[in-house]
Design a protein that fits this description.
The complex is a heterodimer of chains A (134) and B (298). With 134 residues, chain A is α+β, with helices and mostly antiparallel strands. Chain A has two domains: 5-88, F0F1 ATP synthase delta/epsilon subunit, N-terminal (ATP Synthase, domain 1), CATH 2.60.15; 91-133. In chain A, 29% of the residues lie in helices and 46% in strands. Chain A has two helices and seven strands; from the N terminus they run βββββββαα. In chain A, a hairpin with a 2-residue loop joins strand 2 and strand 3 (31-35). In chain A, helix 1 packs antiparallel against helix 2. Chain A is elongated and about 55 Å long. The two termini of chain A are 30 Å apart. Chain B is an alpha/beta fold. Chain B has a single domain (41-254), classed as ATP synthase, F1 complex, gamma subunit (Pyruvate Kinase, Chain: A, domain 1). Helices cover 60% and strands 13% of the residues of chain B. Chain B has seven helices and five strands, in the order αααβαβααβββα. Chain B has helices spanning 4-41, 43-60, 68-71, 94-111, 123-133, 153-168, 223-297, and strands at residues 78-84, 115-121, 174-184, 187-196, 218-220. A four-stranded mixed beta sheet of chain B has the order 2-1-3-4, with helices on both faces. Chain B is elongated and about 110 Å long. The chains are: A alpha+beta (134), B alpha/beta (298). The interface between A and B is medium-sized, with 28 and 33 residues.
């Protein structure tokens, strides 16, 4: 078994995941970073994208993360993300449906406020779709 | 003296009130537990943001070109007070305590000749404040959270965005957040928290990077960029934390208030029942006397 290090994924609402893991791939603003134990201390901002965790048992776990940063040091990795979605709980057709609904909302919006809101939500989902297609 | 029927009516109405306050107490207790759990769950994030803030703030905070969210505009003339209260009443002194704390500062600031602007979150504080300071309310006040069942980060983000927009337009120099800190179920402390310029958490308290990592972090892209990203996030996190504390405090205050109300209603029922029994007995006695004296007269 390979070496482990401490990984924590934290969102404002809760501690999403805290575990000892083998490897984590973090979507940093300047490119993805594969983090293994003993990594040099780095602090990086995140871009919206998929974060992959290889857990102790070698299973993959994937999260969509948006907005935040990662704090890396040799024994520990802390990812602070404003939004996290466990990709196991997300299914593609459902997402497509949501996007379609929002597109209709944008078209139907009566006030500017509603329109801006719907467009905002739509942008978020498109980001998510893009991240998943990669 | 109240007739027997009046007394009976009063007793039954107080009993009905007692049932309501009792039910409200239990609902508040259930909601309190949930609010407390939510506040607890949000702590790791706030804690870590604080830590990163401390690390970065200590580094960049004294530079010339430090972000204005950190060092302020250099003036102290216009103050924005963000007053967070509840949407509902019947929670003891919860709302009025927060407002009192804010009014204290408003008076002090006005005394110094500063300009004060107010943004209310929650209907109740707005209702109290608008009587005296209605002209100081800014557009968008009060932020309505009535239909929000459970405070999510999205709400805090929206409020934070509003505050940051105003700051960018130079509508104010200093922003302070008023909310009620949850100490225990029976103790809530109205608190003022400086939001802009950001208060850098005590770097003594900040943890050092874990063992063997004494060397400074490398920053990607750069320290300044990360700080630029972090500061608005910090504002929202603080607001989010305040809203959560407020939610827990509100339920705690309501629980205590309703517990008192239930007990008071109980006391009142006891008193009224005693009075009712007494007057009933007095009536019977006087009827008996009439009958007896009538019989004696024969």
């Amino acid at each position: 078994m390979s070496e482990l290090f401490r990984f924590e994924l934290v969102s404002p609402e809760k501690l999403v995941l805290a575990a000892d893991v083998q490897q984590v791939r973090v979507p940093g603003v300047e490119g993805d970073m594969g983090i293994l134990p003993g990594h040099a201390p780095v602090m990086t901002s995140l871009r919206p994208g998929v974060l992959e965790v290889v857990t102790r048992s070698g299973n993959d776990k994937r999260f969509y993360v948006r907005g935040g940063f990662a704090e890396i040091d040799p024994t520990r990795l802390v990812v602070l993300a404003q939004q996290t979605i466990d990709l196991e709980e997300l299914d593609k057709s459902h997402l497509d449906q949501e996007v379609k609904n929002l597109e209709e909302d944008v078209a139907d919006a009566k006030t500017d406020g509603q329109k801006v809101k719907a467009e905002f939500a739509l942008d978020r989902l498109r980001e998510l779709q893009e991240a998943l297609d990669l | 003296m109240a007739s027997l029927k009046d007394l009976r009516n009063r007793i039954s109405s107080v009993k009905a009130t007692q049932k309501i306050t009792k039910a409200m107490e239990m609902v508040a207790a259930a909601k309190l537990r949930r609010a407390q759990e939510a506040a607890e769950a949000g702590r790791p994030y706030a804690h870590r943001i604080d830590r990163v803030m401390a690390a970065l703030g200590a580094k960049v905070g004294h530079d010339e070109g430090a972000p204005r969210l950190l060092v302020g505009t250099g003036r102290q003339d216009v103050h924005l007070l963000l007053v967070a209260t509840a949407e509902r009443g019947l929670c003891g002194g919860f709302n009025s305590n927060i407002v009192k704390r804010a009014v204290q500062d408003i008076d002090a600031l006005l005394g110094e000749g500063k300009t004060v602007k107010i943004l209310c979150v929650g209907r109740k504080g707005f209702d109290i404040l608008k009587r005296e300071h209605g002209d100081r309310m800014i557009k968008g006040s009060p932020v309505d959270l009535k239909h929000v069942k459970r405070i999510g980060f999205a709400e805090a983000e929206a409020i934070g965005r509003q505050v940051l927009d105003l700051f960018e337009k130079e509508e104010f120099d200093v922003c302070t957040l008023y909310f009620s800190e949850f100490k225990t179920v029976v103790e809530q402390k109205p608190t003022a928290l400086p939001l802009i310029p950001a208060k850098i958490p005590d770097s003594e308290a900040a943890e050092k990077p874990s063992a063997g990592a004494e060397s400074a972090y490398e920053y990607e892209p750069g320290e300044a960029e990360i700080l630029d990203d972090l500061l608005p996030r910090n504002v929202m996190t603080q607001i989010f934390r305040a809203l959560q504390e407020n939610a827990a405090s509100e339920q705690g205050a309501r629980m205590t208030a309703m517990d008192n109300a239930t007990r008071n209603a109980g006391d009142m029922i006891d008193r009224l029942t005693l009075e009712y029994n007494r007057s009933r007995q007095a009536q019977i006695t006087s009827e008996l006397i009439e009958i007896i004296s009538g019989a004696e007269a024969l």
